[in-house]
Amino acid sequence: MPIQKSNFWLNPEFEPKRQFRYLIELTIGAQNLQFLAKSVDRPSYTVESNPHKFFNHTFHYPGRVEWKSISLTLVDPVNPNGAALLYEYLSSIGIEKPTSVKAAIGSTITKESASSALGNLVIKEMGTRPGSPETIVVGNWQFLNAFLTSVDFGDHTYESEDMVDITIDVQYDWAEYQRGDVQARGS
After folding, report:
1. Residue 133: closest CA among 5, 4, 42, 21
2. Could you report the per-residue pLDDT of 130-169, keeping only the tens digit for each?
3. In-domain check, residue 168
C-alpha cells in the first residue's frame, strides 16, 4: 500500500526544522562570533491594519509591515573577549567616552555607522537531505541594516558554575529568507 502524501508523519521525505539545528554568522569588528551563539530569536513581523468605514461597515486594509527586534544570547569567552568586543562596538559607531560634559555633547550615532559596525548577521537553519545523514543548510535568515539596541553583559555569582552569558537585542529594517539546498527524492 503506497504512503499517502496527506499523512505527512508517514512521509519519509518530511522532516521538521529543529530548534537546535542552526548556526549564526555574526561579525563585530573583524571578529567572527559564530561559535559563541547560545540562542537566537527567529525574525517576526506584524502587518498594520487600517480600517476604512463605509456606511454601516468597516473594511480593513493591510498597511505597513514592521519587523520586530530579535534577541541573541552569546557565551562570553576569555579569548576572544566578547564583553570587550561589544564594549568597543560603542566607539565604532561614534560614541565617545564622556570625559567631560562638553565632550559628551559632540557624540553622535548614524544609522550607517551602527549597521556597518555590526557587520553580517545571518541565521543558518540546518537540516538533512531526505534519505541522507548529511547536514545541509535548509534556509538562511539575513538581517538588513541591523544594529544593536541593547547589550546585557550578564552577572557574576558564587552560587553557580555556569558560563557567563551576554544578551543582545538587535533591531533591523527587514529580514530576507533564502531557501537552502533541499531536494526531495525523485525530483
Report:
1. 21
2. 777 888 899 999 999 999 999 999 999 999 999 999 999 9
3. yes
